[in-house]
Known about the structure:
Strand content: 25-35%
Number of helices: 11
Low-confidence stretches: 1-104
Radius of gyration: 28 Å
Largest sheet: 8 strands, antiparallel
Strand order of the largest sheet: 17-18-19-20-24-23-22-21
Number of strands: 24
Amino acid sequence: MSKTGETVEEPEGVWRKNGLKKRMRGRSMAGILLCAGAVFFAGCGAANGMGQNEETEQPEMPGNDLEAEPAGTPEDIAGEAADASEGTEPATDSGKDGNAEAGTHMVSAERTQELWQAQIRHYYGGILSQVIAAWRLPDGELVTGTAGDTSGSIEMGKNCFAVADVDQDGREELLVRWTTTITAGEFEAVYDYNPVSGEVKKEFSAYPALTYYDNGMIKAEWSHNQAPPASFWPFTLYHYDPESGSYVEVGSVRAWDNGIEGWDFPDELDVDGDGTIYEIEKVGEAYSEYEGFRFNQADVEEWLDGFMEGAEEIPLVYQPMEYESFADFTPTYLKMIAEEAGKGRTDTAADLGLLILKEDHFLDAAQTLLSEKYGVKTEQPDPDFEEWTVGSKDGKELFSFEALNAGHIGYREEKLEDVTIFGIYPGISVDGAWEKLQAYGFYASPYPEVENCLVTGEGFGNISIWFSAEDNVVTDITVGPYCAFAG
Length: 487
């Protein structure tokens, strides 16, 4: 007799966010998770003092099964960054940008915690974007309906998710509840993202009738009440194991009620006379079919108290599986990163990239800034292509504005005074551009069609930037909103 409430039989693995290895022209993309998630240096990429190798793995959506690395905490990161900062001098960019060097600055413990949480939620936003747009979780495809039809987006909002620290390890997990399918296919999965190792792991999956407790326990009710008949609903207990980073089964409880026609109830085992006897199936004990029904209510309570005494249920708020439910995850993270990266800069007011974070109509804002402050003239060179505008100064076309595919800004040929895009500009060295972009949370795109292409993430609300170069000097730059699953 099967137990439909047991963990879904799926391979449990670890998926590394950083799957693409890229050699960075003599400089490392080192510490991107520390740069993006804890940001202890205003120019974290420039400082490059984390002791990493030149060849490092860059973030992408989860896909490879890898062994989990030890989890980290905000305090761990703070300690690592403090150690790394000792004796570290901020790198320069041959004096080409003229900006004041940031030097190093420590972030408060409270700020570190905020950045930590923001980075984790940013990553979960990427997973949720993938669910909504591509019908995928890190470990496989999703289906809906009895025939597995994934064409109806209306069904998506009937599924839901929550973000909370259910395993009580000090780091929030992502709970995905999937119910738009047949009963046997419904599940709730718990995913944990570790920003230190850059890995996401599925800690647990079962039928979505779960109760989480603040001692790391999960009560998982079964999808069906199995025979023999009982009004008591069977369940399985699981406990979070920090060493394995996953939930392990403790045991199961089910009941048998007296008075049901066709069932020969063993009255002699009903010691308390309440008309119900129980089976407690403990992990490691041989399953005994109906012979296991030999316990009374007091036995069940005693067994449960050994795991649950004093435990409190964790209150969870589930949100519908819609973009609006997590639309603030990525912007919050990117704005926090930009705030830290900009602490050592004097030219952020003229940074066209930052307008994408601040303005809903960033193309209009960029054109207005360039026109009013720098005398850039904008025009549409092709009357049949109204979405394309160029910006010229002294007869040179330095900027372009494309109002398609969420909008893009181009910056080419030469630097105009203090105008930058996330700190970079035509004329900066390629190495210097990568370093500065790292400080804003950019990393190498996992889709390397363009050599110097970076993104801040793959979910909705992220940003991509790519540039061309000659003789290790940046020539043309293009930046705009980005989502790997859109369009």
